[in-house]
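Entry type: protein chain
Record version: 2
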Amino acid sequence: MDPDIRLARLRELLQQRSIARGDFVLASGRRASFYVDARRTTMSGEGLALIGALGLERLAARGWAPQLVGGLTLGADPVAYAIAMTAQGQGRPLDAFTVRRQAKTHGTARRIEGCFTPGATVVVVEDVITTGQSAREAIAAVEAEGGRVLGVLAVVDREEGGREALAAAGHALEALVSVAELGVR
């Protein structure tokens, strides 16, 4: 499928499944008149297929060749898995990881789970970027464990300062879709 058609279909899915209007408190603590519940798209079969393909295309366009993709659980998980699985289907090595909000207190007591190894190059992924706080938290965890972050890939940019906050911290953001492109503001 043509990348432009995939992107148009992802926008349609997000508009149909993931946009809610009302009075919401976001993870950042801010109030908003709309909410983007991207998981309703990122956890759908069609959404996974679209995000995997589009995500790989954007990584290549940026010149990012990570060994791993992942981010803060739960929003990043389906995005990372979709991209890793699509890469595998194309014969490209790319694995996924998950960053817990806190390290486990039992078992291996890890904060980063999955295929992460110190020294790996990674792209941190997100479902929705608002202030960039979740991405910055994932970046800090990855860097504390010896990973090297190439950048951040998000499905949706709410355009509320996340891109600028990440840039100020030295990290580029690539978003598949902006809220403006979804017709919400």
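Comment: The chain has a mean pLDDT of 95.
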